[in-house]
Each structure stands twice: as C-alpha cells, then as structure tokens.
Amino acid sequence: MKDLYGQAVYKVNVDAGFTCPNRDGSIATGGCIYCNNDSFRPTACTSSSSLLEQINKGIPYLRSRYEAEKFIVYFQPYTNTYASVDILERLYREALAHPGVVGLAIGTRPDCVDEEKIALLEELAKDRFILVEYGLQSIHDKTLAFINRGHDFASFRNALELTKGRGIKIGAHIILGFPTETREEMLDTADVLSGLPIEFLKIHQLQVVRETALAGLHGEKPFPTFGYEEYIAMLADFLERLNPKIILQRLFAAAPDEILIAPIWNKTRSEFLNDLDRYLETTGVFQGRKR
Ligand code: SF4
Description:
alpha/beta, 7-stranded parallel beta sheet, two-stranded antiparallel ribbon, 10 helices, 9 strands, binds iron/sulfur cluster
C-alpha cells in the first residue's frame, strides 16, 4: 500500500447491515459451525449506526491514533455482496465518496457473486483499490461439508474465474486446524492456493468460540486444537510451500477472551509476530522456500 499510495493505508471496519445466505435460510439457517461474528468484529462496528456514521467515527480515531491519512473501508461482517446490485452500488459509492478513502475491501462468500456484481466492482476498480475477499476456509470438500459452509471448493474456483483479470484484487481467507484434516492435508492447501489467481491471503488457527455449533461439538467430545508452538511450526511449514507473491494479510486470530473456549494462548498480536519471526530466523524458513 505504501508503494501504491506513498504511505500506510488503514482499514475502517464497517457493518453495512448485510446478513448471510448461510444463516437466513437461503442456503441454511445454522451458518458455518464456527461462526460467531462477535469474534472478529470490533465493537464500534455495528449496523445500528449508518454506514456514514461508522466511517465518520472510524476515520478520526485512526487519524488521531496513527496519524493516518488514507483509508480503505472494510465491509467485514457477514456477506457483503448479498444484496441487489443497486443496493451494493449505493453503499460502495457512499463509502468511496468519503474524503481520504482510497478503496474498499469486501468480505464475501464465493457463491454470492455473479457477473453483474463483478462488473460493478470492475467499474469501481478502474480508479480505486477494490479488494474482494472470498471466504474459503478449506480446499477440502469434506471439511466444507463438516463446517456447513454451504458451498464447495468448485464454487470458490468459479468465483476466481469470474473475478480474475478485471482489475479487482482477489483475497482468500482460510482456517488451519479443522479436526477433519491431517497436517499434510492442511499443507496441501498452500500448494493448491499457490497456483490460483490470489493476491492476498488471510490465515488463522481454528478457534472454538461460544454460541457456535462447533462449541457444542467441542463440549460433547473435545477435539485437539493447535498449541501455540505447534501452530507456529505449522504456519512456517505452510508459508514455505506458499507462492511468495501472495501477500499475507493475517496470520492468526485472537477472539475476545470472554467468548474463546479453545485454544487459549494468551498472546498478543505483537508477541505472536515476534515469536513467528524468531522461529523463521532460527529455522531459515521463508515464504516460498520449498517452491
Ligand atoms: S459465510 Fe461467513 S457470515 Fe455466513 S455463516 Fe459462514 S462465517 Fe458466518
């Protein structure tokens, strides 16, 4: 972002009031078994305030805390392409019209885009930074069925086909540690993603959080989750098999203590990143080393 804009660009998270077809009954009602949107949504980001109110609140905070001047509005919770193109266009343009906003990041499901929506994003991407972030979670259909994703891996590939080559940045989001996968199957994900037109990737460890179906399963029959050192070693193995051109946006998750059941690490973001750095230096591992 510094190359593109000459300075760091900060994300303003917003909840534009979307829901999700995996929750409202269009695909399913229960949602993904690990999904509790409170585990990744900042408290200021709530759809009870309008989009503009959220942006107007978020930007001054980032300005005063980081001396930030340029911003990306991040449509984060739920499925942010799950509405008519007219509604999407109004919301996206409203966000882009705000002074200082250079682009959008749009989190969504791969089965919630179509030619019309991608054409809208392509139009916006002509002069703005537009990143669409597809939740994938796993390349393995057995895992996608287990977590009740409501789409398969082929659906993700279709979304990439629709989106690539149109000036829209493409991101993916995956989770490591599902009890349905062996370590080798998790590492296969790095190989497969490396050959796809993905520019950004978010990775994090599976977290069991309260008020989810996964918490119920874990309560009935606890399954192993990553230990802290074990996850760092796993991540290093993953990164050395990953295409070095893929930009990593995230490497771990930290759900609020009040709702996190497992794994409990008690590590801050900077502790985690320092420990990962140290591990990579000691072992000589770097992204793409084994490609
Ligand atoms: S698609 Fe996203 S918002 Fe919908 S249930 Fe799954 S994790 Fe939750």
